[in-house]
Amino acid sequence: MSLEPDPFAPTAPDAGADVRPGGMTPRSVTMVVSLLVTAVLAGILMTMPAPYAIRTPGPTEDTLGAQDGGEGQSATEVPLIEISGAQTYPASGELRLTTVSVYGGPGGDVLLGDVLWGWTSEERSVQPVEAIFPEQVSSEQQQQLGQQQMLSSQESATVAALTELGYEVPTTMTVVETSPGTGADGVVEVGDVIVSLDGEPTETYAELLALLDDVEPGADVVLGVERGGEQADVTVTTGQGDGRALLGVLIDPEYDFPVDVTIQIDDIGGPSAGTMFALGIIDLMTAEDELDGAVVAGTGTMDVDGRVGPIGGIEQKMYGALRDGAQWFLAPTDNCSEVVGHEPDGLQVVAVATLSDARAAMEAIGAGEGGDLPRCP
Question: Would you say the C-alpha torsion 355, 358, 359, 360 has a positive or negative sign?
């Protein structure tokens, strides 16, 4: 009688096979060691600093609301925009300025793991550090620059808003610097006060800019200045920048505001909140309830003549606006190339080029007529 081998019976290893304890072959040992080494190396790489900066959606603030006044004070004691010398009115909606939080750059590093996450996130943007921060700039210098830009944007927004509302804002325009190689170099002097252009008085900064808009870049203009207590006329050959004629001078304007506007905001820097500051001033100083409960966010620099300028990080700002309850977003027309294809679902984006555009959009949204507002093409 013959016996068949039991297929389930344990078999002895080959006499010539090299077997490690637990039944592991050399190939298995090599694979396990390789995986462990790879995991360790990956863990080290993920925690190494990377030469990138990451933009993420930052906080938003309602320019019609208030900020925390600090320990022992309630938020309602510190309105973000406070106006005296003119009648103000309550508002039922929200006008949210938007910000970007940046990780990396001077004084801080990001890890490779953060960079990989940023590359896969729609809300985040990863860029080389030098594309966002100038070289040889410390974090303290960056903060100081941001605060200076914020203060300048508040002043420009106030001028633009009051002008939009029909006020005149008399301005003393003193030259503090002339640009080398321009038509003003050697002609205009530091300390000159500009009073006219081609015989037309320039009592406000907006009037000076409006007159320059009618000048072909490269043309000569006669600039009226007060110099040493006397009036003089000098001929300046204009340059070109941003599509308009330039005088080639740096002006330190001193405004005589007909209304006292105070803007109080902490921990936010840069110039990009100008448009939303200006809209907040307009809403508070007009009897109409323009928003009628709508939540509108936006961004954009604001020139004293009401021009809305482009900003950085608009994709992150749109996501921050949606996160904080906005249904509408006002975007500078010059940022439209970055808006198209990146609008978050649930947020309607309107393109604006001037403060008048932004004001009209605010009123249309509040009236339930926002569907026909201009969008980015």
Answer: positive
pLDDT tens per residue, range 331-346: 999 999 999 999 999 9
| Cα–Cα distance list, 247 to 7, 255, 302 (Å) | 97, 20, 20
Contact call for residues 352 and 333 (beta carbons, < 8 A): yes
Distance CA 224, CA 239 (A): 18
Looking at the domain covering 57-100+138-165+258-372, what would its CATH class be?
alpha beta
Topology at the third CATH level for domain 171-255: Pdz3 Domain (2.30.42)
**Alpha-carbon gap, residue 140 to 280, rounded angstroms:** 30
- Residue-wise pLDDT tens digits, 315-331: 999 999 999 999 999 99
Torsion of CA 127, 128, 134, 135, to 10 degrees: 170
Cα 178 to Cα 172: distance, rounded to the nearest angstrom:
17
Quote the pLDDT of residue 78.
84
Provide the 3-class DSSP secondary structure of residue 147. helix
Letter string b/e over residues 328-359, b meaning 16 or more CB atoms within 10 A of that residue's CB: bbbbbbbbbebbeeebbeebebbbbbbbebbb
In this structure, the strands spanning 193-197 and 171-178 are antiparallel
Q: How far apart are CA 233 and CA 171, in angstroms?
A: 19
Total-model pTM: 0.78
The pair phi, psi for residue 200, each rounded to 5°, is -95, 125
Between residues 309 and 106, which one has the greater pLDDT?
309
Q: In angstroms, rounded to a whole number, what is the distance separating the alpha carbons of residues 321 and 332?
A: 15
- Domain residue extents for the chain: 13-46, 57-100+138-165+258-372, 171-255
CA angle 151, 155, 157 (to 5 degrees): 115
